[in-house]
Specification:
This protein is α/β, with parallel strands linked by helices. The protein has eleven helices and six strands. Helix content is 54%, strand content 11%.
């Protein structure tokens, strides 16, 4: 049975009060996430950096500015998406997240995902990709390929910061964000077509629809609610 979604502001309060791991001792503030609470696209990064720790907002440094440019290739603006990280506190000296830190922080990202209920999850870099997909396969092999995690479409992409240190990754990032835009457009068209088909079906067969409606029992509704 799936858990009910907790409102984002309630999750934010839990994050701000969290002292589960030692990262809480060194943080300036938590970095909960930012963007449209009903976004079609949830972007998941690794962990806050120095600038993010200071401002409490994800992706506000050089990598964040580059991410804004990449989003435009997908036909998106920053306010169209929700951006979060696996970790909500900055690791010292921007070191890699440790397994125990990811484990203790993971419930927050899961709760955010349930609350936002995105159509696509874009994972940036190794840590986000491996966590969301529960895989040991690295981002080099997975980037630019559409994956599935439960009911969510997952699209792994290199972390924008990687291109700041390795310019060769810029072409891959640009190509992957362009592909993301194409996937979003195709999904929107598919939903629209299904909506038209459903509308046509209701108009063409009202009696059949009425009969089907009367055959649904409260037990059927409960069973549907229990499915993720």
């Amino acid at each position: 049975m799936s858990r009910p979604a907790v409102p984002l502001e309630q999750i934010r309060a839990q994050v701000e009060a969290c002292t589960k791991c030692p990262l809480a001792d060194g943080r300036t503030q938590t970095v909960f996430g930012d963007g449209d609470p009903h976004a079609r696209v949830l972007i998941v990064g690794e962990a806050p950096g120095k600038k993010e720790d200071e401002l409490g907002v994800p992706f506000v440094g050089a990598a964040g500015k580059y991410l804004n440019q990449l989003l435009e290739l997908a036909g998106l603006k920053r306010e169209d998406v929700f951006i979060a990280n696996v970790l909500k506190c900055r690791p010292p000296s921007n070191r890699d997240p440790r397994p125990e830190e990811i484990q203790m922080c993971s419930d927050f990202l899961r709760a955010q995902t349930r609350a936002i209920d995105p159509e696509f999850i874009v994972t940036l870099g190794n840590f986000a990709t491996k966590f969301i997909l529960r895989t040991d396969v690295g981002i080099t092999n997975l980037h630019g390929t559409l994956q599935q995690a439960g009911r969510f479409k997952v699209f792994p992409i290199f972390h924008p910061a990687a291109a700041l240190y390795d310019p060769k990754k810029r072409n891959a990032l640009a190509a992957d964000f362009t592909t993301l835009g194409q996937l979003l457009e195709a999904a929107a068209k598919e939903r629209a077509a299904q909506g038209e088909e459903n509308a046509d079906g209701k108009d063409a067969e009202p009696e059949a629809a009425d009969e089907a409606a009367t055959s649904i029992s409260p037990d059927d509704v409960a069973a549907d609610a229990e499915q993720e």
